Amino acid sequence: MIDIKLLIATTNQGKAKEISAYLEGLPLSVTFLLELNSLDIYEEDSLSFLENARGKNLFYGRKWEGLTLGEDSGLAIDCLQGAPGVRSARFSDPGATDEKNIAKVLKLMEDVPEEERKARFVSCLVLSQKGKILAEITGEARGVITSTKKGRFGFGYDPIFYYPPLDRTFAELSPEEKNAVSHRGQALKQLKTFLQTHCNWTNT
Ligand code: IMP
């Protein structure tokens, strides 16, 4: 079977790794954004994950002949009215890093009791080809924000996202365990089914 080309349109290495690991085994030849020679950066300015995912997808895929997969994701915390939300990557501006973003969340939630620390991770995937959107998929994982960091795996807010069904934070899960239950894993599961059904459209 001829491999179909898929561009994974994210500059976030943590996400790129999780996505490509999940799609292993499909007849896809995967390219990462950072492998392309020239890279203009898309400015995320939408108010929803889905709008951002569409924007990134169409921007990075505009010169690409194969399939393009764009993703936007983030953490929405109930007691912070959904923040950091679409600003998850740059919550602690300027010069946001995972460490600084986590420190800001923990500081804002210093006095919040456990029963009010509910949060959810959201992942929106958009698949397109030559400017035409083929699929839009959302995945969600619900958890609780801890008061200290735990675990060494994953990226972003994983060390403070406690996932009750497994009694661990996402950073305490192996990559395989996280992909099986995470927001991104759930969205990718649906994407995989979609791709398996449609893999014969075109072989670009
Ligand atoms: P963006 O989608 O590139 O704008 O960035 C999403 C941001 O949300 C990341 O930089 C992380 O801070 C956070 N995030 C998204 N998914 C995850 C995850 O699976 N674990 C931890 N943090 C995440």
Q: Give the number of helices.
A: 5
Please name the CATH architecture.
Alpha-Beta Complex
- The CATH topology is given as Maf protein
CATH top level label: Alpha Beta
The strand line-up of the biggest sheet is 2-1-3-4-5-6-7
- Note the gap between the termini: 12 Å
Please tell me the overall pLDDT. 93
Low-pLDDT runs of 5+ residues are: none
What sort of overall outline do the alpha carbons produce when their principal axes are compared?
Answer: globular
Give a list of the ligands: inosinic acid
The structural domain count equals 1
Find the count of extended strands (DSSP E, 2+ residues): 7
Structural class: alpha/beta
Main beta-sheet strand count, sense and barrel state: 7 strands, mixed
Query: Quaternary arrangement of the chains shown?
Result: single chain
Helix content: 25-40%
Order of helices and strands: EHEHEHEEEEHH
**What value does the Rg take, in angstroms?**
17 Å
Query: Strand portion, in percent?
Result: 25-35%
Describe the structure.
By secondary structure, the chain is of the alpha/beta class. It has one domain (4-198): Maf protein (Alpha-Beta Complex), CATH 3.90.950. It is 28% helix and 26% strand. It contains five helices and seven strands. The protein has helices at residues 13-23, 49-60, 98-108, 175-181, 183-198; strands at 4-9, 28-32, 67-77, 118-129, 132-145, 161-163, 168-169. It has a seven-stranded mixed sheet with strand order 2-1-3-4-5-6-7. Strand 1, helix 1 (13-23) and strand 2 form a beta-alpha-beta unit. Helix 1 (13-23) crosses helix 5 and helix 4 (175-181) packs across helix 5. The longest helix has 16 residues, at 183-198. The two termini are 12 Å apart. Inosinic acid binds next to strand 3. Inosinic acid is lined by residues 12, 44, 72-75, 88-89, 101, 121, 154-158, 170, 182, 184.
